């Protein structure tokens, strides 16, 4: 609602490509009732975030301690 993120999605993805930043991508939940969850650990490369790689949905990017880098 009123919250405005201090970092854009592209900046967050960029942080996840850095060697000194801990990041993960969680994928799954595409089929109801199916526990096809998986985690990938960073650092990632820029190609990771192309739609062919992850798809358009059913994934989330987690970047730890973003406050240290903003």
UniProtKB/TrEMBL annotation:
Domain of life, per lineage = Eukaryota
| Name the UniProt record assigns to this protein | Uncharacterized protein
- What organism is recorded for this protein? Tribonema minus
